[in-house]
Amino acid sequence: MKQGNYRVLSNRLIAHATWEMVLEGDTGSLKRPGQFVNVQVPGKFLRRPLSVAAWDNATLTLIYKVVGQGTDLLTRCRPADSLNLLCGLGNGFDLSPSGQHPLLVGGGVGLPPLYQLAMDLVKAGKQPHLIMGFGSSDEIFYEDLFRRLISVTVCTVDGSAGIKGFVTQAVPPKGSDYFFACGPSPMLQALCSWLPFSGQLSLEERMGCGFGACMGCSIQTTLGSQRVCKEGPVFAKEVLIW
Amino acid sequence: MNTAVTLCGIRMDNPVMGASGCFGYGVEFAELYDINLLGSFSFKGTTLHPRFGNPCPRIAESNSGMLNAVGLQNPGVRQVIAVELPRMKQFFHKPVMANVSGFSLDEYVQTCALLDAEEQVGWLEVNISCPNVHLGGMSFGTEPAAAAEITRAVKAVCKKPVIIKLTPNVSDIAAIASACEQAGADGISLINTLVALRIDIKTRRPVLANRTGGLSGPAILPVALAMVRKVYEAVSVPIVGMGGVSCVEDVLEMMLAGATAVQVGAANLVEPYICRDIVEDLPRAMARHGIEDLNDIIGGIQY
Q1: Which among B31, B70, B219, B221 is least buried, having the fewest CB atoms inside 10 angstroms?
Q2: CATH superfamily of B5-297
Q3: Angle CA(A209)–CA(A12)–CA(A49) in degrees, nearest 5?
């Protein structure tokens, strides 16, 4: 983990209530896709944990949904503003257990960490397929960016784009042998019974600190109590208890 | 210039401590900086048996503060002694404060006796105030007679200083502090969190799975100062002050109210280096405010 000030390069609306923020600063503590940052929002006491969609050696991209006052305040950030971050939190996805044809499944603002993951999997010579799920077509983001990298199936709950229904309505490509997922808890739970192979899931939980000090985000697993912020947010399918 | 204080006979390089529940067993902060620069810290509330705690969500926010309902998650005293204390010994070389909770007199006594025997433990901080657990410590901390009973029982099995940590969720905290002192407490620490509730307007349900939680953070500092002062006027044993302390000025204010040592809690969760920063700021702040020796300001509020 590293604490530092990051300069806002851009902050823009990319879909319904969904924003993309690009920040400039030290990304050395980001080692794996699926790690997150904890952002200090001026005027709010607790930091806001946000997943990292992509990073390079000088910038990182965050995608967030406006769900309350804190994230609404974030939308007011302008280029050249400074934000204080705890960067490089959590464990992230482990690419090594994946086979040649991993399936990526992302729901809504669970998709961001899958973008860096998709890039890394492609770089590792894998051929991932992505199922992206949204409530409605106006919530869709990053579809083109993903399509430039890998094959994509879109699902919307209201049927306004792609397959109508939840991500479990999609048909995984033949030969899929492993999965990586991030999204709302009911979706993750459904995936674990729907997909016959192993995988890793990134969980979301309300957090106090984001670095393991407060025990505010502990869950019960087959490994005992685990902190979503520290031992997670990515867990193997087999250790989760639903 | 002197920043050292003496708490129940144990010298501390400075009065700044990490507060129980916000500092774990020190591991997460020792990864960030050398925590030996602290006066000490109070480790995660420990019970006789392992506890998972409450379901999530355990955390909610408020203006200038937060609510928690962690529910005393801890691995149990035997695991703390077998794993956490030996690990802590690698990176922390000062006496640590052992925070203890329990659900019966017997649990408090057993847990305290086990920790009292550990060389690394300097003080026992007995939490009779955690507001989160149904049928939990609350009943001991809200009645002077019950608080005194716990104090006497723990004192009977401990050689080390016993500090009783009080809840602010009472009508007369000074009466409870006095009862503890008369029962043999070597010190008093306060305040624990204030009972608090947030409601999700959309679902009309409490934000916390436990329904209520404990309020901490800068919002409660003035409440803590008033209560520390009230207790300072009622007892002669030293006081460990806490509640919303977030910067060096807050430490000085807490000492002026009557605290000998000062714990920093929720601030660690949002500013992980805050305890280090406060310790480093201390000499400059003392110079700014004309303080040569921190001991001179303990209880020094002028009326």
Answers
A1: B31
A2: Aldolase class I (3.20.20.70)
A3: 10
